[in-house]
Amino acid sequence: MKQLHKQSSANHRRDEEIPAAPTSPYSPKTLKHPRSLPRSINYLFKEQRLLFILVGILIGSTFFILQPTLSHLGPSESNSAIPRHVTTGVTTTHDQIASYSKSNFGPGKTGRIPVGIGNRRLRIVVTGGAGFVGSHLVDKLIARGNDVIVIDNFFTGRKDNVVHHFGNPRFELIRHDVVEPILLEVDQIYHLACPASPVHYKFNPVKTIKTNVMGTLNMLGLAKRIGARFLLTSTSEVYGDPLEHPQKETYWGNVNPIGERSCYDEGKRTAETLAMDYHRGADVEVRIARIFNTYGPRMCLDDGRVVSNFVAQAIRKQPLTVYGDGKQTRSFQYVSDLVNGLVALMEGEHVGPFNLGNPGEFTMLELAEVVKETIDPAATIDFRPNTADDPHKRKPDISKAKELLNWEPKISLREGLPLMVSDFQNRILNEDEGKGLK
């Protein structure tokens, strides 16, 4: 034990004799080698990051330098197939810019119009676009250079009416019933979908009113969702059997709410109500047209409307069917006049409603005489009992459309009827050949 104690004491003395290492006056952090460049600059130079940044800046600068020059190039300079100014028959693309600015920024507000809005063509959907009026509207919109989407369930519409557009990259055809919702991205909606002749809308009256109500509701919902302008094709039938003659837009009508024609008459009145409620409550841009009797090529041969009935019967050498005493009156406009009125209304700044019709008034007997003169002077007339709720008089007052839309019909009945007759003769001939008739 003494020996161990001496050894530990000796070790302790040796430890005391070893001098302590001098302490550095600096902190250990300062012993690290200082960087030659700040960390951020060193980061940029690694893996060629600076090169990528410079290339991005160069590309962005080039776009902003060249973009004003390209936007001022004419059609020939830019080798573009799209004309710089598209003639609409009503407005030019400069008016579309003004409309866009007004609708998106409001009065007293300023905003930048997106690049290229003045040069882009509109994307337009036409419900019922394979029908009689719809197909003629599609022709006009395509001719203007617009992209057109046709929605039709082919209840009364026919593919033959739009087959000449098949293969056109600016035309699309969708088989769809507007009673079911659909999602699209468009600028304008022309809502024409609904059977318009008594034979067709009486065939399934519940379906007719569903088309007027649910179809219109779905299209208005689409217009609200995507900010599109919406045009409703209503009808002179909203006036019912009118007590006012001629009918102005301020007239509320005389309609039987429970009659055989109510599915169409009241359906269209409800559609107008929906359009105005969406306009007032959801700020949807709407336009309402009240269409009077229209005729022309592509009408259904046997749709029950008086002009198509008379023309088809005269060509087939059948008696002309007149219901009642033949003294009830109608006004007839040619389809191209109506199409021009619809486009004028859509491109204008007025909601409506607007009467679109020809104020020239004919009794049924007078119309029968015009058809006989045009087709077959030897044709006879077959009188039958009148149908329920058939209006006695129908004539539009179009002074509002003349003043605010600068529109009025140009083609008289005697000028337009031969064009329709030529189309009917070809179709009836083909129909008879298909049945093996001579």
From TrEMBL:
Domain NAD(P)-binding: 126-418
Cofactor annotation: NAD(+)
Transcription is among the record's keywords: no
InterPro entries: NAD(P)-bd_dom (IPR016040), NAD(P)-bd_dom_sf (IPR036291), UXS-like (IPR044516)
Pathway: Nucleotide-sugar biosynthesis; UDP-alpha-D-xylose biosynthesis; UDP-alpha-D-xylose from UDP-alpha-D-glucuronate: step 1/1
Entry keyword Membrane: yes
Chain intervals with Polar residues compositional bias: 1-10
Transmembrane segments: 50-70
Location of region: Disordered: 1-33
Gene3D superfamilies given in the database record: NAD(P)-binding Rossmann-like Domain (3.40.50.720)
Swiss-Prot/TrEMBL keywords: Decarboxylase, Lyase, Membrane, NAD, Transmembrane, Transmembrane helix
The enzyme's E.C. designation: 4.1.1.35
SUPFAM superfamilies reported for this sequence: NAD(P)-binding Rossmann-fold domains
Pfam families: GDP_Man_Dehyd
Function: Catalyzes the NAD-dependent decarboxylation of UDP-glucuronic acid to UDP-xylose. Necessary for the biosynthesis of the core tetrasaccharide in glycosaminoglycan biosynthesis.
Entry's family note: Belongs to the NAD(P)-dependent epimerase/dehydratase family. UDP-glucuronic acid decarboxylase subfamily.
Protein name per UniProt: UDP-glucuronate decarboxylase
